[in-house]
Design brief:
It is built from two helices and four strands. The protein is an alpha+beta fold. Strands 1-4-3-2 form a four-stranded antiparallel β-sheet.
């Protein structure tokens, strides 16, 4: 058990470091559009995510996460706020790594690893634009990887049929 000077006790947690590291994160693009004068409606948050990878060299792959957040009024189909954000992460494989397909690994990890950057930016921007903070929910990483693997396999199968 890990203890501190206070009466607050923490259970020990083992940290396993992977041999691919996210070494740099850059905000590549951010655009916002506010389409209302007053903020006084009940809103529904709609989100879309897109990813891309770019191989820099044998040991480095850049992963991109594009997020579009729309705030829509429940009563109408009006879109009162749109935030578009693109983050780029630079992933570097260490020499002792056993990962053979770095681009595929980055493709699967880019959303879970860059989402916290998006979450912070969206929350801050929405407040600065006069809205309540938009909180992007935490994700089920394992289920998301499974769903996206199935979707990508279906797309690949469709492309091979034609």
């Amino acid at each position: 058990m890990v203890t501190h000077d206070s009466d607050f006790y923490l259970k020990a947690y083992n940290f396993a470091r992977i041999k691919v590291q996210l070494e740099k994160v850059i905000l590549e693009e951010i655009t916002t559009k506010k389409n209302c004068d007053e903020v006084n409606a009940n809103y529904v948050v709609k989100m879309e995510f897109g990813t891309k990878t770019t191989v820099i060299d044998e040991e480095t792959v850049d992963g991109y996460l594009r997020t579009v957040v729309n705030l829509k009024q429940e009563e109408k189909d009006s879109n009162d706020l749109e935030i578009v954000i693109v983050y780029r992460g630079s992933f570097v494989r260490k020499p002792e790594s056993t990962i053979t397909n770095l681009e595929q690994w980055v493709d699967m990890q880019v959303v879970p690893l860059l989402l916290s950057y998006v979450r912070t930016t969206v929350s801050n921007i929405s407040v600065q634009m006069g809205f309540d903070p938009i909180v992007i929910p935490t994700m089920d990483v394992l289920e998301s990887v499974k769903l996206n693997t199935e979707i990508n396999q279906d797309l690949e199968d469709d492309l091979n049929v034609n």
